[in-house]
Amino acid sequence: MQLKLAMIGFGVVGQGVAKILRDRQAHLKERYGAEFVITAVSDVKKGAVADPNGLDPKALLDHLDNHPDLTTFPAPERGWDALTTIRKANADVVVEVSWTDVKTGGAALGHLREAFACGKHVVTTNKGPMVVAPWEMLEAAARAGVEFRFEGTVMSGTPVINTAWKCLRGCEITGFSGILNGTTNFMLTRMEQGLTYQQALAEAQSLGYAEADPSGDVLGWDAAGKVVILTNTVLRKPLKLAEVQLASGITEITPAHIEEAKKTGERWKLVAQANVEDGTVKASVLAQRVPLSDPLAGVMGPTNAVTFHTDLLGPVTIVGAGAGQRETAFAVISDLLDIHATLLARQG
Amino acid sequence: MQLKLAMIGFGVVGQGVAKILRDRQAHLKERYGAEFVITAVSDVKKGAVADPNGLDPKALLDHLDNHPDLTTFPAPERGWDALTTIRKANADVVVEVSWTDVKTGGAALGHLREAFACGKHVVTTNKGPMVVAPWEMLEAAARAGVEFRFEGTVMSGTPVINTAWKCLRGCEITGFSGILNGTTNFMLTRMEQGLTYQQALAEAQSLGYAEADPSGDVLGWDAAGKVVILTNTVLRKPLKLAEVQLASGITEITPAHIEEAKKTGERWKLVAQANVEDGTVKASVLAQRVPLSDPLAGVMGPTNAVTFHTDLLGPVTIVGAGAGQRETAFAVISDLLDIHATLLARQG
């Protein structure tokens, strides 16, 4: 089956999706019978082009290798903003991979609203709408009768949300605890290897893990956003960002703390968790000493992990990449293939 | 949607399934719209009963609490053997949870063949047919146009096969390494805590982890069977049990070995793995020293884990229960819910 895509955002993740489509189209068609055709791209910085017959992903990427944006890329339509693209492109699926704002939801909130209003399926890796208005989004998709996937909002393409939804059906997930921020886990790993907090931060920044203003990572806000997404969509309990208990993140961890933990067979981790007790949610992102016997203790460097606590199966832990262009772009491909399989089954 | 089940086998796993249905029928109906009705049970030891209108799981379990078998359980049909049950019961799904024989496939091989020939969907936790004839089974299901699930054959209900099939679509899984036998991992954990091999084995036997003849576990044959299943179904490469490289399992690990590994920041694990190199599979179950930074090193006690090596996403590790009545019965429920969702989507 062919699915036409409108890409809202063509930055790191959007171009990552284009790279996979450039390199794997034949494989995806042969293995899954899926053909994904980009018919529109709209990006606030790179510009916008659309072609109802499809834009060649290789040509788009080659153009951006040699030009700052898409304004000179040959296409029958150009200059459509995001909302126009969602309305006018002949797309089956809107792929929302624009800039993330977890405080307001950002422009992405409007993109998803418009996509659902237009009856388009949606795949997003954008945390903004799913932190700010997860229930509105889920309900809008259900009302519109369209498919909606957002695996890439937590732990990039590592299958966390889809595993909980599809492969843990039948047991009750009563809570989770995880390492949901790669930057801080990398820093803690390096501090355990002897670096100070400032040295570890500088290294994380030089490797591109941490931004110039690292507060979203080191204070725990980034992880808290992911706690909100998992709580609302996997635990199915309403939770707002302001309700996640935060302290100082990892900013007060010293080499002395780390040495002390080592002595008792423990390791400092920034643990993001939520649990349902008597129907109410308690959620937090706190630096904690985790015993080495806990699967989370062995998660080192920028890797992420989440342990789902279930009633019938006990704890189930998934460990994998938490970020990365290719890894997050894979989340989009994986979600597109899942929508493709769902639509195919529906055709009978 | 209602799905009628014929249970082939009503031992530990079969009764575990009945327990979940007894306790969760209302929940499964409310959450997923799924109603599972047992219309036949056939077990070589417990006897066989069938009722086209449904057998109450609570009544079946209560009866077995007070009687050695089902011969006096009131039902319109009784005494059908497995093949007769598959042919004559008004079931949509055959749940094959009979006795496992990984050398010949056992009677289960015939049960699955008959179920596919009769056009029944199949859920099984039985390693036998999937070790001995995985491609025959997959192809028979495809030819019959029926759904076939076997999550419970590896790591009980911990979602491994379904995660690979459904949530890692789009990337190439080039290999895996795992801890696929809980008994040996429990023994290694206890040996690390100071027990000798013989003491650890005795404890594993007293806890019911190891059988009186523990050779299937300690020599690696059990794990090798799971390697065969994952290689054929997830890596999609043909591999026979005899082709898995085995040595002495964990039988030659001594406290001295364990101490030596500790000194270099390593830990002995019975690592089950397979990798595709230049199109050919290399598979083994060997005791190995694993660095503590490897996610598999932190997997302690009877817990199991598998790391899938993927091209787009890097390593993805899933850690969870490897055995247990409730955990394996959950695999059946989870697979039934997946079949239910697939059939529902197909109805449109």
Report on this model:
The structure is a homodimer of 348-residue chains. With 348 residues, chain A is α/β, with parallel strands linked by helices. Chain A folds into two domains: 2-158 and 326-347, NAD(P)-binding Rossmann-like Domain (Rossmann fold, 3-Layer(aba) Sandwich), CATH 3.40.50.720; 165-320, Dihydrodipicolinate Reductase, domain 2. Chain A has 13 helices and 13 strands. A seven-stranded mixed sheet of chain A has the order 4-3-2-1-5-6-7, with helices on both faces. In chain A, a hairpin with a 2-residue loop joins strand 10 and strand 11 (280-291). Chain A starts with a strand and ends with a helix. At the A-B interface, helix 1, helix 7, strand 13 and helix 13 of A face helix 1, helix 7, strand 13 and helix 13 of B. Strand 13 (314-320) of chain A pairs antiparallel with strand 13 of chain B, so a sheet runs across the interface.
SSE blueprint and pairings:
2 copies of one chain form a homodimer.
Chain A: E1 2-8, H1 12-32, E2 35-43, E3 47-50, H2 57-66, E4 77-78, H3 82-88, E5 93-96, H4 106-117, E6 121-124, H5 127-132, H6 134-144, E7 148-149, H7 161-167, E8 173-179, H8 182-192, H9 197-206, H10 215-218, H11 221-233, E9 245-246, H12 255-263, E10 266-277, E11 280-291, E12 304-310, E13 314-320, H13 325-347
Parallel strand pairs in A: 1-2, 1-5, 5-6, 6-7, 9-11
Antiparallel strand pairs in A: 2-3, 3-4, 8-10, 8-12, 10-11, 12-13
Helix pairs in contact in A: 1-2, 1-13, 3-4, 4-6, 8-9
| Shape descriptor of chain A | globular
SSE-based structural type of chain A: alpha/beta
What is the makeup of the main sheet of chain A?
7 strands, mixed
Number of domains of chain A: 2
What is the CATH superfamily label of the largest domain in chain A? NAD(P)-binding Rossmann-like Domain
**Looking across the biggest beta sheet of chain A, what order are the strands in?**
4-3-2-1-5-6-7
Order of helices and strands of chain A: EHEEHEHEHEHHEHEHHHHEHEEEEH
Q: Architecture of the largest domain in chain A, according to CATH?
A: 3-Layer(aba) Sandwich
Low-confidence stretches of chain A: none
